[in-house]
Write a structure and sequence with these properties.
Strand order of the largest sheet: 1-2
Strand content: under 5%
Distance between the termini: 59 Å
Helix content: over 70%
Largest sheet: 2 strands, antiparallel
Radius of gyration: 25 Å
Number of helices: 18
Order of helices and strands: HHHHHHHHHHHHHHHHHEEH
Shape: elongated
């Protein structure tokens, strides 16, 4: 009976897919429920039936029931006869919650790469898992593997991640080499390429080269007419060029009047001037109009100033910052990563 109910559910699923994709019919959720009903009936007769478990996990993933799908695939992976498709599905589920399941995702990625070392997407995902865990040497191996195999230069994000990888290790000159490579690779792309210059600008700031950073920004402004006045403002503030900073502040607030932009600028100004209490007061004053990311970073910086030893900046990207001895240096580094 287990095979009968599995085949019934499989055929129903195939008919369902044909109707939705080829005949452009609306999704009938009752049909999905019916498929699950027959799959569960199949598993009543054989709780370890691999075909039924796989289809159930696949369907659960398709309707975004990630936790339930994970339980099904975790059961399947215990069976020594399971196929590599289980690792593929399970790795995606783990990767979607990378900060929680990085270790488990890596186990799946390792199994996939053992069979398909040319799978560059999996190399990139594995690199990102290692990066979040602070395992920079392992992340580097995966990223360099991509660069070596990427003959058509399609994986620009691998090059961008190499910049970040060397940056967080204070290997700024190496990071700069990859930042220049990113700019070269983006040369044939259409539209505003300003974002591809961002890492180089940040590195010039790290290397105490404000004039080079400002010159590059002016070049970008001439080529792409990008809104770069905020960047001018930040660089001048960072290096104590406060009069210039105020000029750029008036320009970028007049170009695009926005209360949030002005509030951000005021807070940044006080942080760079070392007036941390004033910055915190302004943060509280304008908190309701600040974006979620800016608000979070402000809170992180203020927590640092209250004596916390370790912190994370931009946790989604996995940038972990250690504890510099000088608290001002710590704040500046946090702000630069911002």
């Amino acid at each position: 009976y287990t095979d009968f109910y599995y085949e019934l559910s499989r055929v129903m699923y195939e008919i369902f897919i044909v109707k939705v994709t080829k005949q452009d019919m609306p999704v009938d959720e009752s049909k999905i429920d019916e498929i699950f009903k027959f799959l569960d009936k199949s598993l009543e007769y054989d709780n370890d039936n691999m075909d039924s478990l796989y289809l159930k996990g696949f369907l659960l993933s398709g309707i975004n029931e990630e936790d339930l799908a994970r339980e099904v695939f975790e059961k399947l992976i215990q069976n020594p006869r399971h196929g590599l498709g289980v690792e593929n599905h399970l790795s995606e589920i783990y990767y979607n919650d990378i900060t929680k399941y990085a270790d488990k995702a890596l186990q799946c990625f390792d199994a996939i790469l053992e069979e398909y070392d040319e799978d560059l997407d999996t190399h990139f995902k594995a690199a990102r898992c290692h990066f979040i865990k602070g395992e920079y040497e392992d992340a580097e191996k995966h990223l360099l593997n991509i660069v070596e195999q990427d003959e058509e230069n399609n994986y620009i994000f691998a090059y961008i991640y190499l910049v970040k990888l060397y940056d967080v290790q204070n290997r700024f000159e190496e990071a700069m080499g990859w930042a220049n490579k990113v700019i070269d690779l983006s040369a044939d792309m259409e539209g505003d390429r300003k974002d591809y210059f961002d890492d180089k600008i940040k590195l010039l700031r790290r290397l105490n080269k404000p004039q080079e950073a400002l010159t590059l920004l002016k070049q970008i402004n001439q080529e792409y007419k990008s809104d770069i006045y905020n960047d001018f403002f930040e660089i001048c503030m960072q290096f104590g060029r406060f009069r210039e900073a105020e000029e750029y502040l008036s320009k970028f607030t007049s170009l695009l009047p926005c209360k949030e932009r002005y509030a951000k600028a005021l807070i940044k100004e006080q942080i760079f001037k070392g007036n941390y209490k004033k910055a915190e007061q302004l943060h509280k004053k304008y908190q309701k109009i600040l974006s979620g990311e800016f608000d979070s970073i402000c809170k992180i910086i203020f927590d640092i100033l209250k004596g916390k030893n370790e912190f994370r900046v931009n946790y989604y990207k996995g940038i972990t910052v250690s504890k510099p001895e000088n608290i001002d240096a710590k704040v500046t580094y946090a702000y630069n990563l911002w």
